[in-house]
C-alpha cells in the first residue's frame, strides 16, 4: 500500500535568519513511517526541518514552510491510499518575508501574521475513497476539540495527543475513529504508538474495502 506521512514542524521565515516554529521533534511521524515501511508499505515522508536520519526504506521529501509541505503533500497524495498527518504545521506565517535581516531598534514592534493553509483539511476535502488520519494536539477539552477537528478536516480518524508528548521518546495517545468512536488510550514508546497508528490505518483501509464489497 502506498502511504503518505507528514512529520516535524514547519518554519515560517520573517527575514533571512529568523522564523516562527514549534518544538516538534518529528519522532512520532518518523516512527510511523519506519513502522509502515517495515511492514512492507511504500511510504513517502514529507518532513519539516528535524534532526533525525531518514528511516530505512522510506522516501523522504524535506521541506521548510507550511506552503512547501502543502505542495509536496498534495502532489504525493495523488498516488497514495492513505495520509497520516503527524506534522506540527505552523498555523500562521509572517505576512511578509524580508529579504534582508531586520535591524534591531529600541522600540517595540509587531509582526502581522496570516494563516497558513491547512494541509490536512485540504487532503480531507479531496480524499474521495482514500483515508486521512489527522492528529490533534490539545491541552484542554481534549475529546471535544479532537472530534471537532476530525469533522472540520474530513478525517477518518484522529490521534489525540497532548503537549507532554512533544519531543519525548514516549507518550500517550487516544484514537477516535469516525466509524467506531473512542478507542482505549495507549501509552508507550513512540515506536509502540506508531504500531498502533499503522494498525489503525491498515484496519481503516480493510474496512473501506469490505464496505465497498472488494475482497481483501
Ligand atoms: N494540520 C495541517 N495543516 C495546518 C495545521 C494543522 O495539516 N496548517 C494538521 C496537523 O498535521 C494535524 C491536524 O491538522 O494532523 C491538527 O493539528 P493541530 O495543530 O492539533 O490543530 P490545528 O488545526 O492547528 O488547530 P489549533 O492549533 O487551533 O488546535
Describe this structure in words.
- By secondary structure, the protein is α/β, with parallel strands linked by helices.
- It has one domain: CoaB-like (Rossmann fold, 3-Layer(aba) Sandwich), CATH 3.40.50.
- The chain is built from five helices and 13 strands.
- It has helices at 27-38, 66-77, 119-125, 142-152, 190-211; strands at 2-7, 12-13, 19-20, 42-47, 59-62, 82-85, 92-94, 113-115, 131-137, 157-161, 170-177, 181-182, 186-189.
- The strands form three sheets. Strands 1, 4, 5, 6, 9, 10, 11, 12 and 13 form a nine-stranded mixed sheet that branches. A two-stranded antiparallel ribbon has the order 2-3.
- A hairpin with an 8-residue loop joins strand 10 (157-161) and strand 11 (170-177).
- Helix 1 crosses helix 5 (190-211).
- The protein is globular and about 65 Å long.
- It starts with a strand and ends in a 5-residue tail after the last helix.
- The model has no long low-confidence stretch (mean pLDDT 95).
- Bound molecules: cytidine-5'-triphosphate.
Q: What is the count of β-strands?
A: 13
DSSP summary: helix tally: 5
Distance between the termini: 12 Å
Radius of gyration of CA atoms, rounded to a whole number = 18 Å
Strand residues, percent: 25-35%
Largest sheet: 9 strands, mixed
Helix percentage: 25-40%
Main CATH class: Alpha Beta
- Give the low-confidence spans: none
Anisotropy-based shape: globular
